[in-house]
């Protein structure tokens, strides 16, 4: 029986970026589509019977840049995640991308393993939790608990009980998972934005406060706005 491979789209005008990315992702078992600008990717998206499950997007591209493509494809498939590949001097575009619906970003040059980790977490949004993950969720040594929240640090699965009392998976990005794991391990402890940047992006120190604020805002929507408190002049804390 043939198992359909997840399809990843690489949208970047630099061939020397696309080629090694394609080889690496194919070696990890993914189907890969390449596009040199946003218009190519959008044309394919409107015709494709098998649209990509994750987009890896450059920001600065000719014809149609990554920001414009993000807006257009999110209008068609709002649930399909995107990761931006950015340069260190594209701080404004990083923030704009996050505000428009990008799920994460990596700054060039980046680690292939770090990119793979982020892609795999984003793919979980469209795949049912496997029996192995369910087993991991029952293994107390991997669990962090706080009221209705349960976080598995091994499988990177987060769950919460809904109003009916049923357990539902919370779709977290790698960045959101790192932040929530840190908060749940250190309830009621205040973390500055600078500390949270180091936790969320250990490989990237070129990030400003606004990006962390975007991630906190989105994390609050997923776990409840009352769980993460702003400590004015200092940072944030998780109410455990």
Can you characterise this structure?
By secondary structure, the chain is of the alpha/beta class. The protein is built from nine helices and twelve strands. The strands form three sheets. A five-stranded parallel β-sheet has the order 2-1-3-4-5, sandwiched between helices. It has a four-stranded antiparallel β-sheet with strand order 6-7-8-9, sandwiched between helices. A three-stranded antiparallel β-sheet has the order 10-12-11. Helix 4 runs parallel beside helix 9 (209-223) and helix 7 (174-185) crosses helix 9 (209-223). The termini are far apart. Residues 128-133 have low confidence and may be disordered.
Structure keywords:
single chain; 4-stranded antiparallel beta sheet; 12 strands; globular; alpha/beta; 240 residues; 41% helix; 5-stranded parallel beta sheet
Mean pLDDT: 82
Count, helices: 9
The termini sit apart by 47 Å
Number of DSSP-assigned strands: 12
User: Which spans of ≥5 residues are poorly predicted at pLDDT below 50?
Assistant: 128-133
């Amino acid at each position: 029986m043939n198992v359909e491979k997840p399809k990843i789209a690489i949208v970047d005008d630099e061939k020397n970026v696309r080629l090694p990315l394609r080889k690496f992702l194919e070696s990890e078992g993914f189907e890969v589509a390449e596009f040199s600008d946003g218009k190519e990717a959008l044309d394919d998206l409107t015709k494709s019977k098998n649209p990509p499950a994750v987009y890896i997007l450059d920001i600065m591209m000719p014809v149609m840049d990554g920001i414009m493509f993000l807006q257009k494809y999110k209008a068609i498939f709002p649930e399909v995640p995107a990761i931006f590949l950015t340069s260190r001097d594209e701080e404004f575009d990083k923030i704009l991308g996050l505000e428009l619906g990008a799920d994460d970003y990596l700054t060039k040059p980046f680690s292939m393993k770090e990119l793979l980790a982020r892609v795999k977490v984003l793919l979980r949004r469209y795949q049912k939790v496997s029996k192995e993950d369910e087993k991991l969720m029952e293994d107390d040594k991997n669990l962090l608990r706080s009221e209705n929240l349960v976080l598995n640090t091994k499988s990177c699965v987060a769950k919460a009980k809904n109003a009916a009392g049923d357990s539902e998976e919370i779709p977290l990005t790698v960045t959101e998972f790192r932040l929530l794991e840190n908060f749940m391990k250190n309830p009621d402890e205040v973390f500055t934005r600078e500390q949270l940047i180091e936790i969320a992006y250990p490989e990237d120190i070129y990030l400003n406060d606004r990006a962390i604020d975007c991630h906190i805002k989105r994390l609050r929507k997923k776990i409840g706005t009352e769980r993460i408190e702003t400590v004015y002049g200092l940072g944030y804390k998780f109410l455990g």
